[in-house]
Structure formats: C-alpha cells, structure tokens
Amino acid sequence: MVRRSSPLDSPEELDDFSDSGSDYEATLKASKRRKRPVPGPLLPKRPRRNAARRVTSSPSNNPIPTPPPDPSLQQQPSSQETPRQVSLRPGRSVDEGKQGISAKDIYDAICSGKSAMVTVVDEWLDSYKQSREAGLLVLINFIVQSCGCKGVVTQEMFGSMENAEIISSLTKEFDEDSVNYPLCTPVPQLKHFKASLCEFARVLVRSCQNSLIYDEYLFPSLLSLLTGLSDSQVRAFRHTSTLLAMKLMTGFVDIVVVVSVQLQTTQRRYDVENSKREHDRASDRLEELQATVSECIENKEELSSMMNSIFRGVFVHRYRDRLPEIRAVCIEELGIWLKTDPEDFLNDGCLKYLGWNLHDKQGPVRLQCVRTLQGLYQEKEFIGRLELFTSRFKERILSMVLDKDPDVAVEVVNLCLLMQQKTEEGLAEDECGHIYPLVYASHRALASAAGVFLYNKYAHIEHCQCCLSLFRVDNQEDNKSNNAAFLQVVISFYIQSEFHEHGAYLVDSLWGVAGSELRDWETMTAFLLQDAGLMYEEEGPLIELMMCAIKQAAQATPPVGRTQGKKVILSMKDKKIQEQDRRRITAHFIPLLPQLLAKYSADAGKVSLLLKAPLYFELEMYSSAQWLEKHLDLLLSQICGIVEKHTELTVLEACAHLVTTLCSESYTFSSRAHVAFSQLLDGLTECFSSYLSDLLQGTADDDDTYSAATALKRIAALMFFKKYLEATSSCLSFRPQAFEVLCDLLLLYSESSVRSKPALQALVHLPSDSLRSELAAFLLDYIFIDAEDTELEGILTLNEKNRKRNQLAGYCKLIIYGVLDLTAATDVFKHYSKYFKDFGDIIKETVSKSKLIDPILSAETVCLCLQQLFSEMLTDNRSREDLPEIRDLAKRLAMSFGINLHRVRKPLLALHMNGICFAFRDSPEGEEQHLNVDFLEILSEFSFKLLQQDRTQLGLLCYYSIKLYELLSSHTLNCQIKVQRFPWCLSSSPAILSSPPRADFLKSRCPSAALSWPSVRLYQHSLVARSTSKPREQEEGGDVVSSYRSPVAKRKRTAATGDTLTTQNTVLIDCAL
C-alpha cells in the first residue's frame, strides 16, 4: 500500500516543485522516486447480488501521489505504471465489416460536425447489441483513426493480442513524418473535430447510463485501451486518448451524482417505511426499496471503480505531460469534476493539482487553472473547503498578476477580486498593493480588470450603501454625494501612486466600471470653483483627471499605448453615446471655462490643461444662441491674458493650438477670433520692436534681452510672422534659447510644411549660408563640449542635459525635413561615439532617417564625417593617436547599416569608393605624399557589411592598381586596358581604361610600394576575413602579397584592321566575376 501523505503535502515538498528544465518538470528532494506496487490483473466481478456487501470507493478515498515526479521518467512509459488488466480478446471470432455502422462512418460523422451524435451513437449501439465483440472492434478502430493512425486493428489482432501488443503494432504503422493529427490539424474540414469528438463521448456515456455502462465489458475494455494509449510515446495517441478518457470521466461523474441522489432518496424512503409499526409496513414495498438501494450501491461502486481507473491510470500521469494541450485538458476536466461532485472531489487531495499547475511554464495551462479556481470561488458553499488551498497558494496567485501572458494576468486579477469579495478575510492591504499599479498597465484588458478591483475595493461599498438605502428622500442628492466621495478616493489614489503623467491610463482603466462617476462634470467643477472644496495639492490632479475624462468621453478611444492592435470601430450605440457626451460637455463648460481660466491663470500647469477643453467642444454651439457669444468673448479675453502673462512653452503651445482651432474658417465666429488675436500680435510686435535696435547694436542689457526674448517666444508660439527669423539669428550669439525658437521657425516655414498648401508657398524661408554656419557652430559651442570645460566640473544637471537634447533634436529635425543639406549631418555624426551616453539615441535615429531619405548620400555623408575627423587629426599633430577613437566611431556607424546586406549594397560600395579615393588622393605640393593612406584602416571597419562579390572586387582594386602600375612602368608602348564588370572607385565613369592619361592617373595614385603598407594590408585582410575561396599569393620572400590570384586571360583578342598595337603589346585584364 502506498503511504498516504497530507492533503497538500508539506510546504517543503511543494516548494521543490519547479517548472524549469523540460517543458514541465517537477524536482523532488528525495533522491529516488518511490516505486508503485505492480498492479495485478483484475479479478472477475462477483455476482451483482453480492454488490451490497462491497465497499464503495471514490477518487477521494484513493492514495494520490504527492508532489509530481520528474517528467523525464514519464518519457519512458513503464508497463508497471498503467494497469492493463482487461484483455481485448473476444470470446469468439468476429468480422467488423459484416454488420452495423463502421469505424469510418463514425469518423466521417465526427469530422463533418453536421451529424446528430445521438443518431450516430444509436446506430453503433444497435451494432454492439447484435455483437458486442464486433461493436467494440468498430469503436476501437474509430479511436485509432481519430488519432491519425493509418493502422487497423484486425480480427486476428483483436483475438490474439494483448493491449500492449496492439498499441506497439499500431505505433509501428504510425506516420512518423507527420506532426499533425485530427485534434491539431489546422484545416477547415477538421475545425469542429474536437467538439464533435467530445460530444460523441458525452452522448455515448449518457446513452449507456442505465444499461451497458454496467455490463462489465464495454467500458472496462475501452478504458483499458485508452489507459494504454495515454501512456504511449506517440503524441497523437496520448493526446486523443487522454481527451476521450477525461470526457468519459466527466460523464461518469454526472452519472455518479444522479445515482447518489437516487440512493439518498431511496434510502430515505426505506427508512421512513421501516420506521412504521410492523402491522403498517408493506413488506413488498420494503423489499423493493431495499433492492433498489442495493442496486444503487452496486452501480455507484461500479462507477467509482471505473473513475478510479481513469483518475489513477490517466489523470495522475497526464496532468504533467510534456504536451501543454494535454495538461490543459486534464485541468479543465478536473474543474468540472470539482464543481459537479464536490462531495467526492472538492478536497485538498484534488485541489493540490490546481495549485501545482499554477507554476506551469505554458500560459494556456496556467490560464485554465485560474479559470477553474474562479468557478470554485464563485460558489459560497465551497469557500470553507478552499481555506487550506487559499492559505497555501495565495502568494503564488498574487505573484501571477504580473504573469508574462496578459490573458493569464487578467484572469488572475478577476480571481483576486472573487477572493476579496467571497472569503471572510479577503485580501490584506499589502496584498492589494500587488494589483493597484496595474491600472497603469499598457494592456487595456489587464488595466480594466485592475480598475474593477480598485473600484470595488474603495468605492463600491459606500456607493451601494447610499444608493440602495430605502430611507433616502432625494436620490439625486445621494448620487452627487456618492460621486463626490468617489472622486476624492480617486484623487487620493492618483496622488499616492505617484504616476502623475499617466492620468489618462487611470481614467481609461476605470471607464468601464465607473463611467457615470467620471462623467459627473458638475461635481468636478463645483470642487474646483469652491474655495473650500479641495486642498491645493488636490486641485491639479483633479483638473488632470477631468481633462482626461473629457477626452475619453469626446473621442471614445483609449489613450496612446493602449490601442488593441487594430483600429477601433465604434458601433452605432457607442457613436450615439459619444455625441451625447460631447454635447453635455460643451453645454456645461461653455459658461464655466472662463471662470476656471481666471481662477487658475497664474498656474502654468493647471491653465495649460484647461486650455485643452475647447478642443473637445461642439464649437458651433457658440453660434447657436446670442447669449453664448459673450462667453466666447470672455474665453478669447482669457486666452490673450494668459499669453501675455506666461512664457512657459507648454502654456504657449496650448494657446497656439487653441488659437488655430478658433480661427478656423469652418466656424462662423472665426472673424471674432481673428480680430482678438490680431490685436494681441500687434502688441507683442510693438514690444519686440522697441528692443530690436538695441539688440542689433549690442547695447541691450539683460532685462531688455529677456523682455525681447519672451516677446519673440510668444510670437513664435502663435506662428504668424516669418520676418522675425533673421532677428532671431542675430540673437543667437547671446541667447541659447533663441536656437530652439529658430529651429522651430525654420521648420515651420520650410518647403515640407507648405507642400500640401500651395497658397502658402510665399512663406517659405530657407536659411542663408551664414546662418547655416552659425547653427553648426552653436553645436560645438553649447552642445558638444568637453565635460572638463563646463563650470559644473563634468557633472551636468538633468535640466541642462534635457535642454541640450532638445537643441540637438531641433537641429536634427532641420536635416531630416530638408531645411539643411544632408551633408550638414557630419557635424552630428562625428560625435556619435564620444557623446553616445547623452545623445546616442538622437544621433542614431538621425542616421536611420537619413538612410530613408537617400541611402547613397547618407553613406557618403558617413564617409565624409570620418574623412573630416581624419583630416583634423593630421592637421593637429600628424600622428595616429586619435585613430583608435575614429575607428571606434566607424564601428558604431557600420552597425547602423542593418543586416539586409542586399539593401545596403550600393550605399556601402559608394562609401568604400569614396574612402579609397580619399586614401590615395594627391597631397599638396611640398608635403609628404599619400598621407591619407591610413584612412584605409578606418574604412576596413565597414568591410564586414559587404557582399562576397563586392569584397572580391574591392580587393582586386587595390591589387590591380599596384600591379597595373608595375606593368605600365615596364612598357614603353601605349597600352590598352579593359576591365570588365569592375566598379572602378577612382572615377565615376564606367570602369573602362582606354587612354594613356588614365594610365598616368593610376601611376600617380598607386605606387608599387603601396602593396606592403600596413594600412593597405589591413584593408585587404578585412575584405577576405570571411572568404577562403581564393588562396593567398606568395612572393619570393614568402610574404603574403594578396588574397587573390592574378587573373589569367581567358581568350585572346584579335587586333582590328589598322591597329598599330600588336597582340604582344595589348594587355587584356578580364575581371568578369
């Protein structure tokens, strides 16, 4: 007898359960697995008349293994683990095809999904009743065919072989090359196969519940076969047989419940009849009731025996199977058993399987476990039986709210809500702390589930107490007070969570469960306008949440980052609700918005949020009634006052956006807005003009400079005048902030900005050459400066670093949008490596965008950037000290070309051609020749991105240039050279050399000694580092000269008539590769 353990085992054993290693692995502290007793063959059943004396068994009374053993032991199924007591050998020979429905008929009906399962099962039952051996053989072959096996159990096999031998024979005939079988084949014909197969098993058990289920032949034989198949190495056998066994078990559980109810009812009637006085008893009635009780006990015992066989022979082994689909099937059916028959199954011995599988590595298995637990926690009468399970696995459940599978995390949050609502102790505050932050999650379903949890935890109790009270007189007042309490709770939570830039996420999380509270604009504005409504630190969060709610109601779309992967299409009902919300928002805020702006006009953060409200109005409503026009005038007045009062960029941008909207010609009141803002601009222009002359003369003091800059910033924000561009450039030398304004204005008045509006073409303004130079100089003076030159001794404050990043981003935008030439990016690219920590992401994005604009020009710009650094190095000290730093930059830039070598082939060739040309460029007279040849070392960092054919061509370039010089120097006659299919990098023309001047060009650029220069050798080595197709060529001294052999002429060319050159003096170099 196997030693029984505690229901959930010791915590030490459970903690050893691990999901590492194989697909699903459990590690035990014990060094050896406990051996199970070898089951012997089942004895023949005793006569049914003795059934009343037999002891009833159930799965809960059977020894259940404690923590699951190592699944590696499951890979080699042992005949000792799975009982195969019942033989399939019939008493007489049968022929399957002579009578009744065939296995193929059943299989076709299952595949089609259109046949009535009751009809199919009835036809098979008719066949089984005529010959049970033939009927069972049909059912066996149907199961084999459902597994996807092409083998057939013949009459001879059926009569002479044991289960293990039959399964072994079928395994040999199984198609090992195919990984698909009916349960997992993704074809339309088998779309309903699983559902139909499950329905077939359910109908079969239900049809046999009163007769054949107790015939001691059909189901014992069938279960014996399914148990053997579930232990097979073939996945199709294991999956299909486990599914059928679990569905049969579910059918048996249903019947056991019915039999148990019938037994209790009959036993109660028997006790009542037996309690009567002797002369009042009906003896025949007592005998009938006692026979019925005995029969029920016998039936229940028979069902329990088969259930025990499935549970111990299939479930206990397959719930930890390697295939996650099999594990999920086991857990799903276990959940059904727990709810259907809690008396026998809802105990710690069965619940532990759910707890263990919460650690499964596969999301679908964990998801099925959580859903099963949800069904259990929904029933109040089950809570008492779940206490030990809850205390043991609560920690694991709470940790799963951060599951890597979002669907699992959503269901876990719903499970935690049930545990909070149904259990007496609920969840402690620190345990709820695992769930609260999820309202800010990017996954919308998870955030909504956390919002429901938050709503029910803090607000729902008070809300229900007030709304359901029958002693309230004014229900509307109650709703207002409830909403006010809810808003205070949300504001407090928002402040404590410290995610102050993610109010839209919090509103979206609560929108589904608390939409009516979040649409209570009256309560929100009453809080803001009342002096004693809120504390000062609560006003800002309320305004932010109110604006997020207004946007959510007006647009009916989730915030950025919570999109569901596809465009949200609103239904007609949702569109109607959206229109109603928009009208309610407009009608409520038109008279109150000027008051709110007046109260919070001095607070930049609050007023910038309030200025966004009209963007979600039905603005035409301003023209619908005359009394509303005064509110429009008040709004325009407040906007102008805010512009004159603030210099913060966020406030000015909000004003500019609102001004653009109100001045749109689509609204009838746009002329009123134009007049108001024209007067504002006139005042700002006059203010700036008063300081302009002093600024240009350089006599302005700091106060005048500040006043002029703030006026200019306000004008730039309102986006009207381009004449201030040049004035801004004159201020560039004394005001770094003017650089940001200038970049924005140049971008605003660029050609790309007016491309869609030809009428604005006259506003285009391109920067002059001097302004381009000043912009580039600003980068060196204010952004790319050495840390030791700063006053902070190498430590930049966060604000200063952000300011520099914004300035650099503004300059890069000018390059990307075509305001500056792409070659201007060299001033940015050359600092990629040195300032990678501070500006690496901005420069990397600029490099990527430049490749989309013009890949070849971008590559040439990269090369030009490196050439400039190399030239600066030679100019400064003519040494190689900075060469490693330049090579490091080249490595980083080379990685930006990506992994698609065919796409970057032309840009890389252009880069190498320019680099080689630069390396062999003539030096000025009086200086050392070939100073730039060391540039080939930098160029070698890009070689690994070349295709093999391009490596070969570029390698031949260096080799042939030197060999060609030696060849030309040894001949006095003119030479004609033809290079076929060879991109000569020293010229943009086709690679055909046919005149003596070209020979002079080569001779002057490719000295014969260049072959032995270290830089040339390094560059050639970089081109052949991954190529072993051509052996290296050795010179007399044994030194490596080149990685390529000298080409041999494949054919001789006959001299044309009139040629003075002989064949001997004609050199043909064929580089066809």
Rg, nearest Å = 43 Å
For the residues shown, what is the average pLDDT?
A: 75
Helix content: 55-70%
Uncertain residue segments: 1-98, 467-473, 720-730, 788-795, 964-1006, 1026-1073
Strand order of the largest sheet: 1-2
Helix tally?
A: 41
Largest sheet: 2 strands, antiparallel
Number of strands: 4
How does the overall form come out from the CA principal axes?
Answer: flat
Family: Belongs to the SCC3 family.
Organism: Amphiprion ocellaris
GO biological process, one term: sister chromatid cohesion
Keywords: Cell cycle, Cell division, Chromosome, Chromosome partition, Coiled coil, Nucleus
Notes on the structure:
- With 1073 residues, the chain is an all-alpha fold.
- 58% of the residues lie in helices and 1% in strands.
- It contains 41 helices and four strands.
- The strands form two sheets. It has a two-stranded antiparallel ribbon. Strands 3-4 form a two-stranded antiparallel ribbon.
- Strand 3 (1033-1034) and strand 4 (1040-1042) form a beta hairpin.
- The longest helix has 40 residues, at 235-274.
- Residues 1-98, 467-473, 720-730, 788-795, 964-1006 and 1026-1073 have low confidence and may be disordered.
Brief synopsis:
This protein is mainly alpha-helical and 1073 residues long. It is 58% helix and 1% strand.
Secondary-structure blueprint of this entry?
Elements: H1 11-15, H2 103-112, H3 117-130, H4 132-146, H5 155-160, H6 163-173, H7 193-207, H8 218-230, H9 235-274, H10 283-318, H11 324-340, H12 342-345, H13 348-357, H14 363-377, H15 387-399, H16 406-422, H17 429-432, H18 444-467, H19 475-497, H20 503-518, H21 521-529, H22 536-555, H23 572-599, H24 604-610, H25 629-645, H26 649-662, H27 670-697, H28 702-718, H29 724-730, H30 736-748, H31 769-783, H32 798-816, H33 826-829, H34 836-853, H35 855-876, H36 883-895, H37 905-919, H38 935-939, H39 948-969, E1 977-978, E2 992-993, H40 996-1005, H41 1014-1023, E3 1033-1034, E4 1040-1042
